[in-house]
Amino acid sequence: MYPHHREREQPIFSARAHVFQIDPATKRNWIPASKHAVTVSFFYDANRNVYRIISVGGTKAIINCSVTPSMTFTKTSQKFGQWADSRANTVYGLGFATEQQLHQFAEKFKEVKDAARLAREKSQDKELANTALTIAAPQSPPVMCVNGPEDKLFRSQSADITLSSEKERIKKMLSEGSICEMNLEAELFTLQDSNSKLVAALHEANANVEQWKKQLTAYQEETERLRDQVAELEAHGGHGPSDLLKDELTQSLEELESLLKAKDEEIHILQNKKAEYHDMEHDRDEAIRRLREMEMRNSELERRIQNSEQNLNNSLEDRDRMDSEIQRAIEILDIKIFDLNDLRQSLVKLIDK
Predict the structure, then answer these.
(1) What is d(CA 62, CA 133) in angstroms, rounded to the nearest whole number?
(2) Hey, how many other C-beta atoms are within 10 angstroms of the C-beta on 17?
(3) Higher confidence at residue 284 or residue 195?
(4) Terminal Cα-to-Cα distance of the chain (whole angstroms)
């Protein structure tokens, strides 16, 4: 029946800290009780209404202290606190990683001490069970198979790494898509600027063409009139204007023909520019089409990233939940081992008696 009530003892608060004990010789210096930070837990025994502070390193109980109303947890620095255990005739010290962890432990210590005081007031006729001193680990401790949870944790971390790699790959794809989209947008803006300039030039050219057409028509009419005059002069022979006037008319006709040829060339150049303008419009439409395709691709990548992040968050939650369960199981197993050692020592004492 002795270990039966221990099964009802459950952890109510845990923290990680470096454990120290006061040097029994000098009562001043601290002696490290653990090489690394260990779990320090508050346990509550509902059957006996007892609170204990327990920390187990391997199979050795580093701290096994029943909380009494007379105990006081004192903060001696921003990350260090201590309390005295008169039953064990020692002082325990805890070094925390942060000030917040120290504050949380101190608050829980005060809360547990108040609960122990209330329990004592309600049960004055009952004596608190004696707490066991630090018990050495047996030479052949039971072998626990904890590789299973560790393998699960390793697989969880591997899945986390895989999801992170997939997330980085998708982010890289999205970054490359964004770069392509920026290049397409720059190309589109360049095309739009060139298009605006070509439209303005085309409008100006169209206005000039209309004006030049009117001038060309007037020049053609003037040329025909001059030709008619020359033909009429040639038909009348010496009865018309002089040869000097004829030469002037011929020269004017040649100048008009040269001007007409130049205007035809300008019209041809403008028509070529118009064709180039149509090509630019086609390029612009193609760039717009490619930009829309890139936007659709980016939307798909963003959706995939959101799904990956959701899967990653779910995996992290599962891993955290598994970590909590494994930690809880390890703590309970540590307590069971300690209780078995305690039972073993009790049996040894009974045999010796």
Answers:
(1) 10
(2) 22
(3) 284
(4) 20
At residue 10's C-alpha, the angle toward residues 9 and 14, to 5°, is 130
Burial class from Cβ neighbours inside 10 Å (0-12, 13-18, 19+) for residue 13 reads middle
How far apart (Å, rounded) are the C-alpha atoms in residues 109 and 92? 13
CA dist., res. 144 & res. 337, Å (int): 10
Residue-level pLDDT at 41: 94
Type of residue numbered 130: N
Per residue in 16-42, pLDDT (tens digit) is 999 999 988 888 889 998 888 999 999
Q: C-alpha angle with apex 297: 294 to 300, nearest 5 degrees?
A: 155
Residue 237 φ/ψ region, left for φ over 0, alpha for ψ in the -120 to 50 degree band, beta for the rest: left
Q: What is the pLDDT of residue 154?
A: 42
Q: Which amino acid is at 161?
A: I
Q: What is the pLDDT of residues 202-258, one digit of tens each?
A: 777 778 777 878 888 887 788 888 878 777 776 765 444 556 666 777 787 888 888
Residues in the chain: 353
Asked whether 258 and 266 are in contact (CB, 8 A), the reply is: no
Counting Cα atoms < 13 Å in the Cβ hemisphere of 208 gives 14
Burial label, 45 (beta-carbon count in 10 A; 0-12, 13-18, 19+): middle
User: For residues 50 and 35, is the Cβ–Cβ distance under 8 A?
Assistant: no
Residues 172, 177, 183, 189, Cα dihedral to 10°: -140
DSSP annotation of 38: E
Amino acid at residue number 68: T
